[in-house]
Design a protein that fits this description.
about 270 residues, 7 helices
Length: about 270
Amino acid sequence: MTRTDSRLLNSSQTQKQTQNQTGAGRRFDALAALFDPTTFRHIERLGISPGRRCWEVGAYGASVATWLAKKVGPTGRVLVTDTDTSRVALAARPPIEVRRHDVGTEPLPAERFDIVHARHVLVHLPDHAPALQSMVKALRPGGHLLVEDTDPALQPLLCPDEHGPAQELANRLRKAFRALLAERGADLSYGRSLPRLMREAGLHKVEAEVHFPLASPACAELETATVQEVRAHLVAAGLATDEEIDRHLMNVASGEMDLATAPMISAWGRKE
């Protein structure tokens, strides 16, 4: 390989990484728009006030961490952990601390917390149990755990109102995407088991609620970013063609389809 070839290859790789990061950023922004209000409402109900100590598991974006930081103030603490912390690195200033950590395999933080929260984290882990146990152990007596995960199998359609070719194509591509997730080890029916698993982990006063966005501009933004991110995988697996994906993205951009996200189940409980 010549030096010029090497520079071109490195430039292509950098461009691809930038595109992937941009797509992931759009997806996380859409998820925040769709689900932050629900998350904030639940945390408010559990009791968030100045001086509280919080552990945010999963650094998909800074929106939850910065909201928590405003609520707990300078006397509180917000620990944000993930195996990849690049998306929240800029938020790492008191009372926020950002730390690289794998909740499923590494020892839990030494301190104890009033609130532990994880959203769209456990469903992607090959073994949920150790991560859930770690979060429960990290609670102080009287502390609360809030876990929020999607359950794609509970409502598998992108277009619940399937009344035409565009909706049929959308639902077929959503089925293909779910096949990719299942192949990668995602448990597509994990969300519904959260209340039972939290009781089995020793939590008390366990409750749960389902949030199911439909026909929101953020749903369209999330779908576009997601499809663009997994496009090559769908084509390589023979689950869709480039022509079908282009047509679907045009249909989404038209704004004439009522798109849904997978239902998000929020479950919470208290440690006695």
